[in-house]
Every structure is written in structure tokens, then in C-alpha cells.
Amino acid sequence: MRKLKFFFAAFALFLAVSLFWGTGIDANAASDLYYLGGMTAGFSLSAGGAEVIGLSEVSAEDGIHRPAEEVGLKIGDLICAADGIEIKTIDDMNRALARSGGKEIKFTIKRDGEKAEVGILPIKDKKSGNYKIGVLIRDTLTGIGTVTYIHKNTLAFGSLGHAVCDENNQSLSISDPKVYLCSVIGITKGKRGRAGELRGLFLNDKTIAKAETVCETGLYGTFDKSYDFSHTELVEIAPLSEATIGKAVILSTIDGICPQKYEVCIAKVDADNKENKNFVIKVTDERLISETGGIVQGMSGSPIVQNGKLIGAVTHVFLNDPTRGYGIGIENMIKN
């Protein structure tokens, strides 16, 4: 099995409001109405600093230098601070290098969850005249995700059903609060032993929401009032106690911008699971199996509907069988 984590096409969107009392759904919350998601959206998450994605050389008047590589920096390292001043963006990094005037900088580096300090001497590039340490960096990761639902009255939305992580399994924070409509333009089909993925294109002229929170159960925020909900189905939510083994449907977008319903079977319900795995589901819809092989990255957060009520969202795929995966109960997403 494999978590559908943040990868260029791997997400969903969800709500963060206190609608639950204890471990069950509040009576008032149960009568609320929610717009079913299933559409894809694009957004940016902060890497939490300047992430090293490549090592390079610096051409100086006296020859070629590799300052970062020489002190042991590696791809995947996160540069968090320079001489005690926080680094969040590429601009922060460039300002720190310019301030140095060629003097050694004490960088705070995060690797595998551990922080350490390392001194690096910037080198003046003979072509640009700028000080460099020989790294290629990024400060954000962009991705697409499947909207789980939007609350009818508040327009609060929620997503994913599991923590938002990068390729190195590092948790991310929100960078760009804007959420864009996204069109799915391609699919890498899932196969036994290899997870597939959706490929999406940001429609940057169509802002549909604002992201506000990211946590262990996904990404949350508020939809724009101008969004057209006229073709979006309204449903109630249901607690895990109402979920049963048997037929259900999921809503996902695997082409363009229009979500479709696909048949699945709930094979197991586990209300006590603490790892966002309250359901085991199996894709039974031959259309979806034919197009994607089953569950792929990008379908995380696809709403799961049973008996006309929203009961959860897709969260994981079984690596050894892409037609099977896990889902989280909707009450656990809202509670967290």
C-alpha cells in the first residue's frame, strides 16, 4: 500500500470547522448540506525553506568552485536560516548571500527531520557578480487535488484525508493561498507494484478558493462565492456507524474539469483506525479500471458516497493492487 502524497498530481481539498461532538456527528451537523466535490484544483505549498534540488559549480575569476558540495550539502536538504535569519523563500536566500559580501555564512540545514549548522563561504560569480554557493533551490511545490466537499452555508472546503508531504515525506505548509481550477490532461495508469498518477494543468485565470490550513488530515480553506455550484450535488454527511460493507460510489475527475461517479465496493469498515484508514475500498467500475488501473495519485480526497450520504474520502492505494485502497471517515476529517 502507498500513501497518495503530494506529488505534481496528487491531492484533495477539505473542511476545518468544529461540527462534531466527541467521536460522533452533532445532531445539527448531520442536517447540514454539503456540495459534493470530485473536481480538481491546483495550489502551492511551502517547502518550509529553500530546498536543495541540485548542486552546481560557481565560476569565479580564480577558477571553478563547489562550495555547497564541498561542505556536504545534499539534494533534499532544506536551508532554514542564514546566520540565524529565517529563510523561507528564494528571495530570502538571495538577500542572505548578498549581505554576506563574500564572508562565511552559518546556514541552518534540516535533513531527515534533524537540524544542523554548517559554514559555507559564498563565491562571487564572475559573470553575474552575485555571490553564490552552488545550489539549485526551490521554495514551493505545486500540485493538484480533488475537492472532497464544500459546506453549503459557510463555503468551507476540505481535502486529501491524510498529511500533505513532499517526495521526501516532509510535511508542508501553505505558501500561495490561492486555489485554482485545474484541468486533468493526462493519466499514468497504475500497475501492480507502481502507483499511477493524474497530470493536471492549472487554469490560472480561474481562482476558486483560498487555502487556510494544512494538517494531518489534509488541506482546508474557503471557496469563492463566485464559484458556480449549479451543477454540484448537495448531500448530508453520515458517521462511520452508518457505513456498511457493500456498494458505494466515488467522485473523481480523470479528464478535463468535470467529475464523474464511479462504482466501488466497501470491503471493510474500521471506525477505530488511527491512521486515516477507516475503509478498505475496491474499485469495481470497469470504466475507471480501464482508464486509470484503479486508484491513482491525484484521486486522494475523492468523496465516498453511500446511500446518498457523504461518508468519507479516498486516501491511499494498495501498491500491490491499484484497484484497492483506503479511505477516511468524513467525521474524522472534520474532527481534526
Task: Please specify the SSE layout and strand pairing.
Layout: E1 2-3, E2 12-13, E3 20-21, E4 24-25, H1 27-30, E5 34-36, E6 40-55, E7 58-60, E8 63-65, H2 67-70, E9 78-82, E10 85-86, H3 90-100, E11 105-111, E12 114-120, E13 123-124, E14 131-132, E15 135-151, E16 156-159, E17 173-188, E18 197-215, E19 218-223, E20 234-235, E21 246-252, E22 260-269, E23 279-283, H4 286-292, E24 303-306, E25 309-318, E26 321-329, H5 330-335
Parallel strand pairs: 2-15
Antiparallel strand pairs: 1-25, 3-4, 5-15, 5-20, 6-9, 6-15, 6-17, 7-8, 9-10, 9-11, 11-12, 13-14, 15-16, 16-19, 17-18, 18-19, 21-22, 21-24, 22-23, 23-26, 24-25, 25-26
Structure description:
- The chain has helices at residues 27-30, 67-70, 90-100, 286-292, 330-335, and strands at 2-3, 12-13, 20-21, 24-25, 34-36, 40-55, 58-60, 63-65, 78-82, 85-86, 105-111, 114-120, 123-124, 131-132, 135-151, 156-159, 173-188, 197-215, 218-223, 234-235, 246-252, 260-269, 279-283, 303-306, 309-318, 321-329.
- The chain is mostly beta strands and 336 residues long.
- The strands form five sheets. A six-stranded antiparallel beta barrel has the order 21-22-23-26-25-24.
- β3 and β4 form a beta hairpin.
- The longest helix is centred in the first third of the chain and has 11 residues, at 90-100.
- It is elongated.
- Residues 1-30 have low confidence and may be disordered.
